[in-house]
Amino acid sequence: MDSYDIGLGNNDSTIRALANQDNVKFWESQAENLFWSERWHRALEWNPPFARWFVGGKTNASYNALDVAVKKNPHKKAILWEGEDGSNRTLTYQDLLFKVAKLANALKKLGVKKGDRVTIYLPMVPELIISLLACARIGAIHTVIFSGFSAQSIRDRVIDSKSSVIITADGGRRRGTIIQLKNVVDDAIEGLDFIQSVIVLEHTGNQITYNAKDKKWNEFVDSMEPLCNAEMLDSSHPLYILYTSGTTGKPKGVLHGTGGYLTHVFATFKWIFDIRDSDVYFCTADIGWVTGHSYVVYGPLMHGATQVMYEGALDYDTPARIWEIISRYRVTILYTTPTALRMFMKSGDKFPNSNNLTSLRLLGTVGEPINPQVWKWYFKTIGKEKCPIVDTWWQTETGAAMISPLPGIETIRLKPGSAARPVPGICISVVDDDGKQVPKDSKGYLVVENPWPGMLLTLWGNDEKYKTVYWSKYKHMYYAGDYAMQDKDGYVWMLGRADDVLKVAGHRLGTAEIESGFVSHKTVAEAAVCGVPHEVKGESIIAFVVLKDGITPTQQLKKDLVTHIRKTIGPIASPDQLFFVKKLPKTRSGKIMRRLLKAITQDEKINDVSTLEDEASVDEIKSALADLQHTLGRS
Ligand code: WTA
Prior knowledge:
A hairpin with a 2-residue loop joins β10 and β11 (177-180). By secondary structure, this protein is an alpha/beta fold. It folds into 3 domains: 4-414, Rossmann fold, CATH 3.40.50; 428-497, Luciferase, Domain 3 (Luciferase, domain 3); 502-628, GMP Synthetase, Chain A, domain 3. It has a 7-stranded mixed beta sheet, with helices on both faces. It has a 5-stranded parallel beta sheet with strand order 8-7-9-12-13. It has a 4-stranded antiparallel beta sheet with strand order 23-24-26-27. 32% of the residues lie in helices and 24% in strands. The structure holds 5'-O-[(S)-ethoxy(hydroxy)phosphoryl]adenosine. 5'-O-[(S)-ethoxy(hydroxy)phosphoryl]adenosine (WTA) is lined by residues 244, 289-291, 366-369, 391-396, 419, 480-482, 494, 497, 503, 508.
């Protein structure tokens, strides 16, 4: 197997040694790197499965992200922003702090108090970062919704979190068009009386209507005082809710705390990215996802780093756009996804080759397993065999990276396709159904054995669900829902999801969520979806729909159903293929056999169908797929 030994000149064996000795003490030593107005009296309170880190300690996320950097150097550039239309803005740490203070004061004026929720639905503009930090500054809980989600998805999330204020913009730019954000919010919140105000940023200048609850950012927020003290909060004070898909129909509100989360993010950002004062860091993730929370907002800012923030599509209006950005800002660290890399690779080497990428010194990836051939392309064509690649495994729930090469502290042996070893202080294992460790090189379920600082506090308003989803398969271990394998060197190889969660272009989507989207259409009786391998997106969605009696399956209806899914969930959930069938393969107890569906769609051998209620359903699906292959000329 190929492997590459590569380092950045760092070698600090004391970190792993200390972590192996006593991992709670070890995390305590990492927490010392943050600002605390009061020190904790207890490092960890563990009432399984609830962990509270640095109990008694007081701190503030916005203070750690801004004031600390401003004290060091107020003029240091924080954000080099580029709009999709080519416009740009530069904000220093001092600029950011003033803007955050103004928005924090505006939120206070609107009655937002410590612990209240604020929903944020913005494009990738500096005001998105400012919004998160303004909430954090006053102890409000931010809940960001990715700007690709639809009105219905926003409504569900806003109702669940009971947000009193929403921050949005007139629009956002994506692939040359304007995404209507404000109009979507208007639809989403119709009749929701608990929403008191909507702050609207003028960004694209498109026509929108202002309603009684609306406040214009450039009038209301900009008129506020640019000073606002950061409120010092308990270490476990909730910092944010981030909704993510699981195996049930409704997304789960993952709740993160402050002190533990920041400690984990701070430490991993340093170990993984080896951040230095002169670096220009560029993470391509949208802040609507956890990667953006941890490694666009909190990680880089707590380290006083300079970063590029880009508004639009990475291949718009030329496939070279990303390489032009890297060359224009002399980016030194690039953190992106396998999906994006597959897309870049497909458009050809001439685009990266015709741009100056010599500034790059470190490359990263996150979100899905990376195919070894894509890894090698990244290493050779982009990194010119000089840059380590950090393949980072983690989840919305884990808060920060759990498995990754760490060039910030050690020389590493990289194996293309493996995320390497667990980070210090994180105890990972690969186990069988009974929780017993599987032999080396065998497939099993990935679990985390000990609580860790970035660990979610719970699911918003649902402790029971938190226990069932993560802590019921194994009593004393966190169940991640991923298949994995560990080799004899302790390297972890991620083998995809073990549950009904899809990863489409790196975005997490629950099959049940999409299925209930279908069923909410008046013509649909039931539906089953599963993921099939896709060259660029990793996985794409294939849907099998049973119509209500008397409804005629037509091409138009297929189109209508796709539109319906785009409207109810968002464009990211659109199926690539949709089939009308009379029956779904189900167990006798009525559960859809998704594993079987997946096996059929991937033409795998079907072994055990003893629990199947009606074999005819399998034949019907097989023949629908055969017809499709025939049409595509692949058979
Ligand atoms: C997958 C994203 C392989 C995995 C930060 C996990 C990965 C899910 C990797 C979490 C990786 C993430 N290699 N698979 N490096 N990183 N995953 O919550 O299935 O959007 O459980 O967090 O993404 O997705 P989420």
